[in-house]
Structure to design on (760 residues):
């Protein structure tokens, strides 16, 4: 408890209302009648007076609770569950109660750290995180106009909601209230919003909501907590994913000021690489360029037919120093997030698009690795330097590929002999070594959504996979391996990119499924990526090729960041660290700092205590990566659903991409859009779900559907805000699956399609 307060002047035993409220706000434990009596020295008959005073304050609405646990009404208890909801202009995190059932606005608290041993670091928290925190009412001289009234010290990070409670508000013209349509496709039902709970939300706004129950037997209704803007405005539909996953949308003013004030790096102490025609080769719409490449034939007689490859990476560590405001912000973000209509960058624009971006014809500080390969693509040695470079040209993948295919642009023509042709010759050797290494060779093209000038979907394409892509990819892989090897040899901290082999359980499922297709995966010994590649090669050119690629992908473990080495199964590498993208990945920035420290390259290193807390940082940036991937995927789903919303009733060719007890997931052939076919719409019989065969089979007819089947479906419903598409099956189930259903219990079935739900 807090220190004992002074008794009032009027009655040395009985406290005043103000003293009671202040004590409740400052107490660091539970507050009840017993604690108040002990703190103020209330004894004898005065206990009855204290009880009467507390009852009176409760009736007046000043306090809430019971005699064992009371708190100031409208305030925070000494220990509370809070949700991080915002940041102020200085970048400080602001939290609110995770649940609130009292009148008025939720009180806000600024996250503060006093006990650095027991408390969480603010860098471990982001918007949307929930925490258990000690709270304290701030004195008047500690607050600013409109600022939080409380300070909160986080004790424990609680499990994060999979997705925040967000929805689209639809106003009801009749009574001023409305409905909320949740964006979570698993909660597609409407929630009523009473007029008093709508706040300032306008029709079509994205809102954060919770639930309100006004009586013991009353139905729950939604209450608007925060209005977040209209996704149809200039910020487009990615706004939904940004708020759903708590992505930091803008940089705090203090971070922007710090980035703006950074001086341009000089040449002192750096190796001059400006004479090397390094090229940046990126997507045509890339805004930041953090890697450049160059290759030349090795003239060393001891290495006939060899190559020297230089990979130069933006020296972000020159500008982003450990502990700075920009660094704290970068760690909080973890990585950049890429949407079709925008980028949520890890670093402010002053850094990502200017100081650190390897712009054509401009000098930039860099960290470069010079790697020597023999004629078979085997690396003989490598060295790192901290240098200054000047990009000879900024090329797109398509432009570089066209040049090497015999159609060089005016920009590429003078670079053919000095840069492009040596690059491709070196890549030919590296590609041969890669094929011998035999990494996992999945063929799963990714769709790309192209927008028009109004931010609407113009078309959905699957870009060609060019040799230029593979060239850059392989050279980046080699640079990443070199970074991991160098740090290991110096016993320096490493953030590994780890990818473990598939689990035994997933391998059993994969073998069972491949067996139904007449394919085999070795059942004994330790599997290598080459074992999976043989299965993929056997499926190539067959109708099941895409299906087999997807199932093999699902059997793999998820890659993450770790301070300990677990190898990279997919790439078939013993050690691997991300080094080549420090503008957009915090993991790479840590590797840069560790290299600078280990090789004594000057300022901006990790420091002697750099390994402390590395495990927590790795966990944090791994979570940030998963969050970014989910946000990117969901945004594409919403854009595609919006694109198809005016085609209700249209029929599409599709492939069964998932089989569950409740229905089929399908993927459209032309757009790659994913949707669901409820099992209740498949026919007037019951269906058995055969999990090992990824199939559902009609128990009467023997007809069914299996993962990978080519089908025709009709679009029944599209909900753009949730990225949800519902289809009905046009194709008849295939024959020959009845044998799979033997011994399996039937799943849910229906005699007729369900009645369409009304949507507001």
């Amino acid at each position: 408890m807090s220190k004992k307060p002074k008794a009032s002047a009027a009655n040395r035993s009985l406290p005043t209302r103000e003293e009671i409220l202040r004590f409740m706000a400052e107490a660091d434990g539970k507050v009840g009648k017993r604690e108040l009596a002990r703190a103020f020295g209330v004894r004898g008959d005065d206990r009855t007076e204290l009880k009467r005073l507390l009852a009176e304050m409760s009736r007046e609405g000043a306090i809430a609770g019971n005699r064992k646990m009371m708190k100031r009404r409208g305030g925070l208890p000494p220990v509370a569950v809070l949700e991080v909801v915002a940041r102020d202009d200085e970048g400080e995190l602001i939290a609110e109660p995770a649940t609130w059932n009292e009148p008025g606005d939720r009180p806000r608290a600024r996250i503060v750290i006093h006990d650095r041993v027991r408390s969480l670091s603010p860098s471990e928290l982001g918007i949307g995180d929930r925490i258990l925190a000690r709270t304290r009412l701030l004195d008047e001289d500690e607050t600013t106009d409109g600022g939080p009234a409380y300070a909160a010290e986080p004790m424990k990070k609680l499990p994060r909601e999979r997705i925040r409670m967000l929805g689209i508000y639809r106003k009801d013209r009749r009574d001023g209230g409305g409905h909320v349509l949740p964006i979570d496709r698993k909660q597609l039902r409407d929630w009523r919003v009473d007029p008093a709970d709508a706040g300032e939300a306008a029709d079509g706004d994205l809102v954060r909501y919770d639930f309100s129950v006004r009586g013991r037997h009353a139905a729950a209704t939604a209450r608007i907590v925060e209005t977040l803007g209209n996704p149809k405005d200039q910020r487009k539909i990615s706004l939904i994913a940004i708020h759903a996953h708590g992505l930091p949308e803008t940089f705090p003013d203090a971070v922007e000021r710090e980035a703006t004030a950074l001086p341009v790096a000089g040449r002192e102490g750096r190796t001059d690489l400006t004479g090397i025609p390094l090229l940046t080769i990126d997507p045509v719409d890339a805004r930041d360029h953090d890697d450049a490449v160059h290759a030349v034939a090795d003239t060393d007689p001891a290495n006939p037919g060899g190559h020297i490859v230089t990979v130069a990476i933006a020296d972000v560590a020159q500008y982003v120093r450990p502990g700075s405001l920009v660094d704290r912000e970068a760690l909080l973000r973890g990585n950049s997030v890429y949407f079709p209509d925008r980028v949520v960058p890890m670093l402010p624009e002053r850094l990502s698009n200017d100081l650190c971006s390897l712009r054509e014809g401009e000098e930039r500080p860099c960290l470069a690795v010079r790697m020597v390969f023999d004629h078979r693509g085997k690396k003989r040695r490598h060295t790192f330097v901290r240098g200054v470079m000047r990009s000879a040209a900024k090329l797109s993948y398509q432009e570089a590929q066209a040049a090497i295919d015999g159609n060089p642009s005016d920009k590429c023509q003078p670079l053919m002999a000095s840069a492009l042709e040596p690059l491709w010759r070196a890549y030919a050797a590296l590609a041969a070594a890669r094929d011998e290494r035999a990494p996992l060779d999945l063929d799963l093209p990714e769709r790309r959504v192209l927008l028009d000038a109004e931010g609407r979907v113009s078309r959905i394409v699957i870009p060609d996979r060019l040799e230029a892509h593979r060239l850059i990819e392989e050279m980046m892989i080699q640079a990443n391996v070199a970074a991991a090897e160098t740090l290991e040899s110096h016993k320096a901290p490493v953030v590994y990119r780890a990818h473990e082999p598939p689990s035994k359980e997933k391998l059993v499922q994969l073998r069972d499924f491949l067996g139904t297709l007449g394919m085999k995966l070795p059942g004994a010994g330790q599997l290598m990526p080459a074992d999976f590649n043989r299965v993929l090669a056997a499926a190539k050119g067959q109708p099941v090729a895409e299906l087999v690629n997807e199932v093999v992908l699902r059997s793999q473990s998820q890659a993450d960041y770790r301070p300990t080495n677990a190898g990279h199964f997919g790439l078939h590498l013993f050690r691997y660290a991300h080094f080549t993208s420090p503008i957009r990945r915090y993991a790479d920035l840590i590797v840069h700092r560790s290299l600078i420290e280990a090789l004594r390259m000057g300022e901006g290193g990790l420091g002697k205590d750099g390994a402390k807390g590395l495990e927590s940082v790795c966990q944090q940036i791994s979570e940030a990566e998963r969050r970014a991937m989910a946000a990117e995927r969901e945004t594409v789903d919403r854009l595609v659903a919006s694109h198809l919303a005016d085609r209700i009733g249209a029929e599409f060719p599709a492939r069964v991409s998932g089989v569950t007890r409740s229905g089929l997931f399908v993927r459209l052939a032309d757009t790659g859009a994913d949707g669901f076919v409820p099992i209740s719409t498949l026919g007037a019989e019951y269906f058995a779900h055969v999990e090992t065969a990824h199939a559902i089979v009609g128990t009467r007819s023997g007809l069914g559907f299996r993962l990978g089947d080519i089908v025709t479906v009709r679009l029944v419903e599209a909900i753009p805000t949730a990225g949800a598409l519902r289809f009905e099956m046009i194709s008849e189930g295939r024959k020959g699956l009845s044998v799979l259903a033997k011994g399996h219990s039937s799943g849910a079935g229906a005699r007729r399609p369900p009645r369409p739900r009304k949507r507001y």
